[in-house]
Specification:
single chain; 177 residues; alpha+beta; Nucleoside Triphosphate Pyrophosphohydrolase; 33% strand; globular; disordered N terminus
Amino acid sequence: MWILLNKDEPADKLGEVWDIYDGNRRLTGSKHLRGQELGIGEYHLVVNALILNDDGQVLMQKRSFNKISYPGIWTVATGGSALAGENSRQALIRELSEELHLRVTSDRLQFINSINYTDWIEDWFAVRIDASLTNLVYQSSEIEAIRWTPIQEAIKINNQNGVNDNTLLTQAQKLLF
C-alpha cells in the first residue's frame, strides 16, 4: 500500500529532539538535541526498514550527497532517528512516509533485530510492498535515486560500500517469503 504526498524537507534536521536511553534500552527521562554530543552511556533510537517487493527484490536508495553520514552511497536501509516520544514502529512509519511517501501500518512491519552501537540503538524491520518505482516518490533532500535490486546484487553492493547489512537482508527475506 502506498500514497503520494507533496512534501520535501531538508536532510539531517539538526534541530530534532530525541529521547535518551540507557544501555538496557530504558528511557532515562532526558532529552537530546541532535547535533550535540551524547554523554557516556547515553543512547538514542534509530530505526531502519528493509523494503522488499513481491518479486523478492530489495529497494535500494542512493543517499543524498548532502547527508552527514554515508553521502552518495547505495544502501538498503530506509529510516532515521526516532523523535522524542516515538517508539520504533511510530518512528519508522513516519520515516517511510517522509522519505518515500510510503504509508504502511504497524502490523506490516516485521521486526528483525535490535543492535546497540556506540551511542545509538538501531531497530531493524522488514516490510513487503507491492509498488513499482513509478509509484514511489522519494524525498530529494534525502535520496538521489531508488531502484529494485536482487538480494545477491544488494549484498555485493553492501560489501563494496563497507556496509554489513547482509545478515539482516537474509533474515528479512526469510521473514517475508
